[in-house]
Design brief:
Number of domains: 2
Distance between the termini: 75 Å
Order of helices and strands: HHHHHHHH
Structural class: mainly alpha
Number of strands: 0
Helix content: over 70%
Shape: rod-shaped
Strand content: under 5%
Largest sheet: none
Length: about 400
């Protein structure tokens, strides 16, 4: 009913001339600004106006006549108030609609943000597990490398131990021969050279040449140093009566080294049976150690394999979590975009409502601003004896 009577408002309470009062106002005038704000809201088809399309057009045409010049709060007649109420209902409904959308948008954004936080935490947790697994694999590979080297060392030790057992009898025979050779060198070759008695110079030369070479090889096996190997021949080729204290010390050193070697060989030969048992036991222990090293290496290799498979699974989990996190981020951003838009719409609706309230409450005569009272100079009191 209100909207049907808007055409009768064109003349206004005082019979205003046809045409929009807004045309007579400056664009900077508050009434013009607020009327324009409300009119733009009514023109906006996203702002619902009840009824047919004609209702929107009628409200727009009636707006300046119901709230413009000559339609202040104390000038408005009954039909104008009906139009004002209708416009107010439209703007209030728009504010409520926008506020509801903001509330819904805020709730959806908060929910999306909570899901995004949960997704971020889940990704961080899974990434932490993946990083820990990478560190674990590095450590297990280091253990495997150590076990491989231990296996090689055990293989080498076993090979040497088996060699000792397999060649024990031959080695003992060789030690027996070496002992005989050293005893001959000591008791015959060295003794003859020490004595230095030869029938002819030719015999002397032959004995010294062969004897020196024999002793040289013997001393090399006995561990003589280079200085002894160089000087011993000089001491033994001198005539006994021409040898000095140094020569005698050299010859004594030769005897000591050969005797020590003979004693060592004799001791090893004496231990023959028990030493063989010892070598067999060492070989058995080396085999056990080798088998243990193989088992440990295989266990380490399996541990690396299992850890790498677990890492592969964690890679997939992290990839999925990353994808979910990105989706949650996109959802959050979309919800924020919608919320920002709804807030902007609400701000626009509230601004239109504020403009409407200004027009509704506007008096016909704006009160003049109070001027600040200036302090007046105080009158001086009359002096004593003067008339006041």
């Amino acid at each position: 009913m209100v909207l049907k009577k808007t055409k009768n408002l064109a003349m206004g309470k005082r019979g205003a001339t046809p045409g929009s009062p807004m045309r007579k106002l400056r664009k900077t005038h508050p009434m013009y600004k607020n009327l324009t704000k409300v009119e733009n809201a009514l023109h906006d088809h996203s702002v619902p106006v009840p009824g047919s399309k004609l209702n929107r057009k009628m409200l727009i045409e009636a707006l300046p006549k119901a709230l413009g010049d000559g339609a202040a709060s104390d000038e408005r007649h009954g039909y104008q108030k009906m139009i004002v109420d209708a416009i107010g209902e439209v703007l209030s409904a728009e504010v409520k609609k926008c506020a509801d959308k903001v509330a819904t948008g805020q709730a959806e954004y908060d929910a999306a943000s909570a899901e995004k936080t949960t997704s971020d935490n889940a990704l961080a947790e899974k990434q932490g597990l993946l990083d820990a697994k990478k560190t674990e694999i590095t450590e297990k590979k280091e253990v495997l490398s150590t076990d491989k080297q231990a296996h090689k060392d055990a293989e080498h030790a076993l090979k040497e131990a088996n060699h000792e057992v397999e060649h024990f009898d031959g080695n003992m025979k060789k030690k027996e021969d070496d002992k005989t050779k050293f005893e001959t060198a000591l008791n015959e070759t060295l003794a003859s050279l020490k004595k230095g008695e030869y029938a002819t110079p030719k015999e002397k030369k032959a004995a010294e040449g062969k004897g020196i070479e024999t002793l040289k090889s013997i001393l090399a096996v006995a561990g003589a140093d280079d200085s002894l190997l160089v000087c011993f021949s000089v001491a033994l080729t001198k005539d006994p009566e021409k040898r000095g204290a140094f020569d005698n010390r050299v010859i004594k050193e030769i005897e000591t080294r050969i005797e020590k070697t003979i004693a060592g060989l004799a001791s090893e030969l004496a231990q023959g049976p028990s030493l063989k048992d010892k070598k067999i036991a060492e070989a058995a222990a080396a085999l056990t150690k080798k088998d243990a090293s193989v088992a440990k290496q295989e266990a380490s290799a399996e541990a690396v394999k299992v850890a790498e498979q677990e890492k592969h699974d964690l890679d997939a989990v992290v990839k999925t979590a990353t994808h979910e996190m990105k989706e949650k981020t996109h959802t959050q951003e979309a919800k924020l975009k919608i919320l920002t838009k709804e807030k902007s719409c609400l701000e626009e609706a509230e601004a239109s409502q504020e403009a409407f309230k200004y027009l509704v409450d506007r008096p016909s005569v704006e009160p003049e601003p109070e001027e600040e009272k200036k302090d007046e100079p105080m009158e001086e009191a009359p002096a004593a004896g003067e008339d006041a």
